[in-house]
Write a structure and sequence with these properties.
Length: 352
Amino acid sequence: MRTRTTRLIGGVGSLALASSLVACAGSSSDTSAPLSNAVDASDARHPEWSKYTFTIGDNGGDGSQELAKVTGVFANAPYKVKFARFTYGPPLVQAAASGDIDLGSVGDVPPITGAAKEYGFKVVAVNRSLTPTQSNENIIVPEGSQLKTAADLKGKKIAVPQGSSAHGLALNALKSVGLTPKDVKLVFLDPAAGATAFNTGKVDAWSIWNPQSAIAVKNGARILVKGLPPIDQTSSYYVASDKSLNDKTKRAALTDVLKRLSREFAWAVRNPDKYAQALSKEQGIPLADARASVAAYSNRVTPVEKPDIELEQKLADAFLDAGQITKKVDVPSIVDNLLPAGYDSSKLKGTS
């Protein structure tokens, strides 16, 4: 997959250097790939799309890059696709706003913090969890910690990736027990720095997602607060660049990109062992750790619906009230569905 390396510009910060071409029209490195012919043939009959190369933001290694190779989902696409790795959501949203990427998936908070900074992007689809009782992120404490409940976080240091979904989890967990960010010490660290701080005892707790959470728990850490409703959302969101959405022809092609990605992940849900292998390879973690995370990664792609907008608005208002953003965000104004009403990737044919 990593056949070519480039750097994207535009202040994307945590964007890794791996951005590689994975497929082009009419060719594939794996002729036996399970999804190489699964997308409707009509989707490939657009010669006007051949001028496009779409960059897909990969948020922390969700397996999309490796799955594209395994499934061949872009093999017959009439455009080129490459992937760019980000360590977490805020830099990905910034890259979408600047046009350095065309599409990417993030948690529930980055669209809010991005909109508060008036970035030029839209929320175009939802990655809706198929396992809503399985938390993809948690607030964890080290082995031997005396903290038992969220209320015990008062006065403690909590490592948090700023502007991420884990930031939202921390905020709502505190609010659920009558605390505010002023009652604790939020230590804003990216995931790698957060891991170091947590493992060396420099913080009392860490709000973080899988696989980092699952790996830490496997090594002795304990979950203090699970990232589940009503404290946390289990869905994530696709965002796209206004530059792509506002061009009618490019928008149609980008819709095709999103549909192919949705088929890729629908196939992954039906093939968890192969999905775990893809996650292991892409994230560089042991296969056992990847398998522990697969359930939380099981999603279906759908349009953004009214309840999603209401949840995002409630979260945006909570961020404003807590002083974590300084501008009110009107969530409906940053939603622009690419998928037709009723679209549900879990019901697609040709994904088994």
